[in-house]
Structures are given as structure tokens and as C-alpha cells.
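Input (structure):
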């Protein structure tokens, strides 16, 4: 039994709430039924993925410039994580992203240009932050274990065109030198149910890690409550240089079926074939994911939850990894949050030699993580927060148990204190 402490991450949705009236107008002008959500601009989180229509939008900034509509959105998390011990580490870091989208009516449809940026490469030093049992991608030329890589400066650079096809139907085209193909749930940084949990899911590389891919082209059709999409993209994960835009052949493909029966629910199943996703690992992967997200608004808040599953089949040796997760965030009293996540994830590169021997020795290791946190904004507008973080694993032979507890203390000076909850 090993103990460590996590004290982490106080955040500010770096957003304002101006000009809510234009938003209201759009929402009230339409019956927000399934077909309006599918492909609808307001619902899109990253790439062409959807959060349910009932997701809170009070932290987006909507403006207009002439006949263009502008939408700005962003989040900044700053904090210190302490996961001391042989596998862990401590770090002061910031995770953040900023998104801007401009849209315009063209030929009876909507044309949109979007950019999403992150300064993670500067604010997460040495190319990783500690996260016990996390794996995926590389830092300093070696596979990352017990850590998470920062996101790229250019998370998304994309154009999209959405066009109605008569009653209840529409199609959309999306093209992005850097963007999010139709594979997986809404990526965790943008998923409504993970809105106050900046740490990556342990299942990230089994579920939604393609959210930053190169050379993405997606075509989709929406029909009633259903959306069906297909994408081509470059399968290789972003390289370690997080400041540039990578390039590669469009060598991978995916498809996704989204169902949004009403404004509260959205679910998806998707599958893709990825060519050489991991820089240091041979072989291609087939990835399959499914997820359901539910958002329930109530007076002065809402409750958002997701159930997630992702599976990677490594074609080089037939190895299969599954990751399951449940996460939830409840906002209450306008500005307070309670959030948590529980995961159970197969890992194959946590221990020396595990990757090499896994073909001969079936390793059904199960690794789980629990993230839980709370945030309160006292009347001053400062934000107090904390996170409880616990992980444990039980792997055949090399088993161990980690238990963790942490507690947060108030951290003042939310940079957006003046506008949050306005
Ligand atoms: Cu990611």
C-alpha cells in the first residue's frame, strides 16, 4: 500500500456571457429537436462531435461582426498535482484551450471556420504531467508511463459547411489540417460531463485520443435523430513537437453513428482503423468506441454524466485492450461544481518488459482510476477547489494497490472571477 497526495487544479472557464440575447434568439427560433442538433453549429464541441443540446452554454461568448457570427470559448486550469512515490511525481502545470469560430450563411447553408489553440506545450513542462497509470505517446523519445502528454498548440484548424436537405435532413462536410475525425465520444477536454476534470481519462488512447489528428476530412448526413459520418485522416499520433502542425498521408478511416433522441441525451458508436498510431509501436489498430451522455438542467445548474467504452485491437499481435469509464459533473447554485470519474482500463506498457512479453503471457491487467473533485466559488468570486484522486491496479503477478487521498484548499484569484456566473 502506497500513499500519495494530490492537490490539484483550480480552474476558470475563461469565458464571459455577453450578448446572450443572440443565442437565445437562435434557440427560441427553432424547435430544438434532434434534427436541429445534428450538425447544428452550437452543439459542436470538437470536430463534428456533439454534446447534448441541453449542455450549458453560458460560458460561451457570442458576438457578431457584420453578417458573421463569432463564438469564443475557452478554459484554463492551473494547479499543482502531487503524486509522489516511485511511479508518481509532482508538478505545477496549467492545461488550457481557447476556441474561436466564425460562421456565415452561404448558399442556404452555414460555412464555419474554427480554430482551437492550447498553450499546454509551454505550461506543461518537460512534455508531460504526472498521472498514475496513464500511458500513450512519447516524451523525450520514450513511451510515457504514469504521465500524460500536453496537447498541441494547434488543437484544431478547420472549416465546415452544413446544408439542410429538406425537412429533418442535412449534410455536412468538414476539412481540417488539424482536427477531430468521426471517431470516439466528444474528446474529454470538451465533453460536458468532464467539464471540470482537466486530467486526461486513463482510457484516452482507447477512446478519444484521435481528437488531434492530421489531414482530416469528414462527411456526414443527419436524418431526424440520427447522424452518420465517415472520415479519412492520418493515423499517426501528433509528434513530440507540440508547437508545429504535423503532416502525413490520409491513411486511416473511421465511421460514427450518433443518436440524439432529445435535448438531454446523445450517444454514439464509432469504429476506425488507424495506421501506425503510436510512434514507437509497430502495427495498426482497430478502435471501437461507444458512449452515452446525459445532461439534466435544473434550477441554477445542471448535471451531466457519461458512460464510455473504448477498445483497441492491436493488429500486430492480436492484443486487445478495453477501457471503461463513468464520469459526472453537477453544477449547483450557479457556480459550484461536484465532479467525479471512475475508470477501469487495460494497459500493456506500464511495466518494464510488459509490452514485449504480452504476446506470450496474457496480461489481463486491470487498472482503474478515480478522480473526484469539487469547486466552490465563495461570494467574493474567488474559486476554491480540490480534487481527490485515487488509482489502483491489480495485474497478474505484479500486483499492487495504490490508494490515494487528497484534499484541496481554497485557491483565490480566478482570472475570470468577474464574469463567471454572471
Ligand atoms: Cu488528447
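Output (sequence):
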Amino acid at each position: 500500500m502506497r500513499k500519495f497526495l494530490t492537490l490539484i487544479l483550480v480552474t476558470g472557464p475563461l469565458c464571459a456571457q455577453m450578448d446572450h440575447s443572440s443565442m437565445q434568439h437562435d434557440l427560441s427560433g427553432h424547435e430544438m429537436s434532434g434534427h436541429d442538433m445534428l450538425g447544428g453549429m452550437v452543439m459542436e464541441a470538437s470536430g463534428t462531435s456533439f454534446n447534448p443540446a441541453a449542455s450549458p452554454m453560458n460560458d460561451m461568448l457570442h458576438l457578431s461582426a457584420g453578417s458573421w457570427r463569432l463564438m469564443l470559448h475557452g478554459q484554463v486550469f492551473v494547479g499543482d498535482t502531487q503524486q509522489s512515490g516511485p511511479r508518481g511525481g509532482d508538478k505545477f502545470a496549467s492545461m488550457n484551450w481557447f476556441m474561436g469560430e466564425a460562421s456565415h450563411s452561404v448558399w442556404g447553408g452555414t460555412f464555419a471556420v474554427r480554430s482551437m489553440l492550447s498553450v499546454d506545450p509551454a505550461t506543461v513542462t518537460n512534455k508531460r504531467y504526472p498521472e498514475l497509470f496513464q500511458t500513450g505517446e512519447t516524451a523525450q523519445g520514450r513511451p510515457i508511463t504514469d504521465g500524460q502528454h500536453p496537447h498541441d498548440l494547434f488543437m484544431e484548424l478547420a472549416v465546415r459547411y452544413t446544408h439542410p436537405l429538406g425537412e429533418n435532413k442535412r449534410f455536412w462536410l468538414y476539412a481540417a489540417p488539424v482536427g477531430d475525425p468521426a471517431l470516439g465520444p466528444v474528446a474529454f477536454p470538451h465533453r460536458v460531463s468532464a467539464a471540470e476534470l482537466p486530467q486526461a481519462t486513463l482510457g484516452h488512447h482507447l477512446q478519444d485520443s484521435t481528437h488531434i489528428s492530421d489531414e482530416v476530412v469528414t462527411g456526414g448526413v443527419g436524418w431526424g435523430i440520427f447522424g452518420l459520418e465517415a472520415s479519412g485522416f492520418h493515423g499517426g499520433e501528433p509528434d513530440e513537437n507540440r508547437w508545429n502542425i504535423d503532416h502525413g498521408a490520409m491513411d486511416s478511416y473511421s465511421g460514427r453513428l450518433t443518436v440524439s433522441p432529445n435535448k438531454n441525451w446523445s450517444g454514439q458508436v464509432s469504429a476506425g482503423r488507424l495506421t501506425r498510431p503510436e510512434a514507437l509501436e509497430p502495427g495498426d489498430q482497430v478502435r471501437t468506441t461507444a458512449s452515452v451522455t446525459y445532461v439534466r438542467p435544473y434550477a441554477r445548474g445542471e448535471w451531466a454524466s457519461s458512460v464510455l467504452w473504448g477498445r483497441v485491437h492491436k493488429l500486430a499481435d492480436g492484443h486487445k485492450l478495453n477501457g471503461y469509464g463513468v464520469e459526472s459533473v453537477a453544477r449547483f447554485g450557479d457556480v459550484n461544481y461536484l465532479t467525479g470519474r471512475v475508470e477501469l482500463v487495460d494497459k500493456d506498457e506500464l511495466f518494464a518488459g510488459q509490452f514485449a512479453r504480452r504476446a506470450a503471457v496474457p496480461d489481463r491487467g486491470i487498472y482503474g482510476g478515480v478522480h473526484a473533485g469539487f469547486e466552490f466559488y465563495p461570494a467574493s468570486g474567488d474559486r476554491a477547489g480540490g480534487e481527490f484522486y485515487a488509482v489502483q491496479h491489480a495485474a497478474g503477478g505484479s500486483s499492487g494497490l495504490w490508494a490515494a487521498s487528497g484534499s484541496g484548499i481554497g485557491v483565490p484569484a480566478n482570472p475570470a472571477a468577474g464574469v463567471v456566473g454572471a
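Notes: The domain at 2-411 is CATH 2.40.160.10 (Porin). The CA atoms of residues 77 and 308 lie 23 Å apart.
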